Amino acid sequence: MGSILSVHLAVPMPNSAKAVGVTGILKRPVEGPVQVRAPGPKTVGLGSGLVGDQIFDVEHHGGDDQAVYAYAREDYDWWERELGRTLPGGVFGDNLTTVGVDVNGALLGERWRIGATLVLQVTFARIPCATFQLVMAEPHWIKRFTREARPGAYLRVVEPGEVRAGDEVTVVHRPAHGVTVAEGFRAWTLEPELLPRLLESDAPERLKEKVRRRLGR
Q1: pTM of the model
Q2: What is the tally of structural domains in the chain?
Q3: Is residue 81 packed enough to be buried (19+ CB in 10 Å), middle (13-18) or exposed (0-12)?
């Protein structure tokens, strides 16, 4: 059983990488409980699933299938060793930094109960973008991040509730298809021969439509 190490909300900053001109990718830790609810559709909904969080590039981020972003402290620690710099939770844009949770090994469609009432469902991996490259300021960051396949997971809200640092994370459902966050990420990025596996998984239907187009189906 794992837990939530920290919870983060956006700190808006200028963004020269995209036309929208501002980003909420950098996030700060917050002390008290944060309410989490389904934000609604991308572009016309509330953006983030966390009340008080902000999403500005609503075309590419947020919405029900990307309501919450989780990243494992263990993967942050790995990147710290690789990059030789300190990486506090939230610097990758994660709302939740976990400990003791195999985020990249989670199955698409897996459900987590967090604390007393909140239930989240794993949807897919985070895909790195130009904004991520800008804020990290590491040479060839997108390629490097992609190659290592430690993307972290997006989640949708199944049952609303609240989250705070220290909440336990319990896996309450694991589907039978076996497709993990990391495998889905590799399929979408560097290993397209794995794409048919996504059609067998519990990936969001919108994503499956994109996969079918890429496969010419």
Answers
A1: 0.96
A2: 1
A3: exposed
- CATH for 165: 2.40.33.20
Q: Which domain holds residue 174?
A: 2-211
User: How large a percentage of the chain has pLDDT more than 70?
Assistant: 100
Residue 59, pLDDT score: 87
